[in-house]
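User: tokens in, sequence out, please.
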């Protein structure tokens, strides 16, 4: 046993040497711009101004959603009691799926939807079910880990295409004679913030008779006139579309859904192992999500999206004025709530994060393997709940941190 533990400890030491160890912090209060956090290696909570949450619309602590969750628990109890195909599929789950199908029907003819406990699970389900032995999966180079793992779980052969390189993908598809082809991409790239060329991907899917699987984790609720995501924002419509939407980010609750043609969803119910062989999420989650969808598509959701866009514009303008002239740190191009401040070196990213911590600002340092080697960054995530003063404080703190001599962090942030 000592030999086995020594092996693990040796691997952990290697992570330490490369500034790649991950740590967890404890959130003591609800998700909000100002949140009490007990940082790793400390014992007392501090109130920090956070820019790491995916709560893009600021709904995670919305009183209407908390009330709907409590109402759902009163109606259905705290647990589902079983899988969706045994006894766990509640009226709340059914209503949520019907509502989401109606949301997506303008973009996917004869749409149905299927609710999952997490977005990770939804991606595993779609790719492992549709990616049979006679299929080839064409996977974007910067896809999220859940899409990569879903492709690994599938029996299909996997072909990786260069980031947003439509010419290369076109050639790869043309050279493939498999009877089933799946093009798979994030809609908004989670560590870079820019939007995939989804219209071009759909055109290739039409040309080469392929499915197009789009993970809209960071676009759902934020993009489009009523927050229905990238398909609404781009005005796309096709039976070839298989959309995965996350409900624990902009929607402020938890879970995910797959929206596709009714035949695809019926097939997933029969063949998607991550759906069949797991306990359904608590019905109260689905009940709260129904309230979230009402907020997202209504006037309040529209106003929150406008505020978010204003904070994005403010941040980008402000940071351009404080970034070093030598180009040693730069803001990657992004029109979304995800704003990557590129630092390159792992150690530097860790040190700048520690300097921001000292100023009461919490921004996560993102390092390999989440991003390619040499592209360590601060992933600044904005919310509609951030005020103009919050963003101004962040800009000032980043300017101070980048101007100071780099100090060694006491503990590694996550």
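Assistant: Sequence out:
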């Amino acid at each position: 046993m000592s030999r086995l533990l020594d092996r693990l400890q040796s691997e952990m030491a290697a992570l330490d040497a490369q500034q790649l160890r991950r740590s967890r912090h404890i959130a003591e209060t609800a998700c909000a711009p100002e949140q009490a956090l007990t940082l790793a290696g400390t014992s007392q909570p501090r109130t920090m101004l956070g820019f790491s949450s995916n709560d893009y619309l600021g709904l995670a602590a919305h009183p209407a959603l908390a009330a709907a969750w409590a109402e759902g628990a009163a109606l259905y109890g705290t647990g589902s009691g079983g899988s969706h195909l045994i006894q766990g599929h509640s009226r709340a789950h059914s209503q949520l799926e019907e509502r989401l199908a109606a949301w997506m029907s303008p973009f996917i003819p004869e749409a149905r939807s299927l609710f999952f406990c997490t977005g990770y699970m939804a991606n595993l389900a779609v790719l492992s079910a549709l990616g049979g032995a006679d299929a080839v999966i064409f996977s974007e180079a910067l896809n999220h880990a859940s899409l990569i793992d879903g492709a690994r779980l599938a029996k299909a052969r996997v072909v990786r295409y260069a980031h947003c390189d439509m010419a290369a993908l076109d050639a790869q598809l043309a050279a493939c004679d498999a009877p089933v082809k799946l093009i798979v991409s994030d809609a908004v790239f989670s560590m870079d913030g820019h939007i995939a060329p989804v219209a071009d991907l759909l055109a290739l899917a039409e040309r080469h008779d392929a499915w197009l699987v789009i993970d809209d984790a960071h676009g759902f609720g934020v993009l489009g006139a009523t927050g229905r995501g990238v398909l609404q924002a781009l005005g796309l419509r096709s039976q070839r579309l298989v959309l995965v939407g996350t409900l624990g980010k902009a929607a402020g609750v938890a879970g995910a859904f797959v929206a596709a043609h009714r035949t695809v969803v019926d097939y997933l119910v029969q063949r998607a192992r991550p759906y069949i062989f797991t306990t359904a999420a608590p019905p109260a989650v689905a009940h709260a999500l129904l309230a979230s969808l009402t907020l997202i598509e209504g006037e309040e959701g529209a106003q929150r999206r406008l505020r978010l866009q204003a904070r994005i514009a403010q941040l980008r303008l402000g940071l351009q004025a404080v970034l070093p002239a030598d180009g040693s740190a730069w803001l990657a191009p992004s029109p979304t709530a995800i704003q990557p401040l590129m630092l390159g070196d792992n150690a530097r990213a860790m040190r700048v994060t520690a300097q921001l911590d000292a100023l009461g600002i919490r921004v996560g340092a993102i390092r390999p393997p989440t991003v390619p080697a040499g592209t360590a960054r601060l992933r600044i995530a904005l919310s509609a709940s951030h005020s103009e003063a919050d963003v101004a404080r962040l800009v000032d703190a980043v300017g101070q941190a980048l101007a100071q001599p780099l100090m060694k962090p006491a503990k590694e942030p996550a």
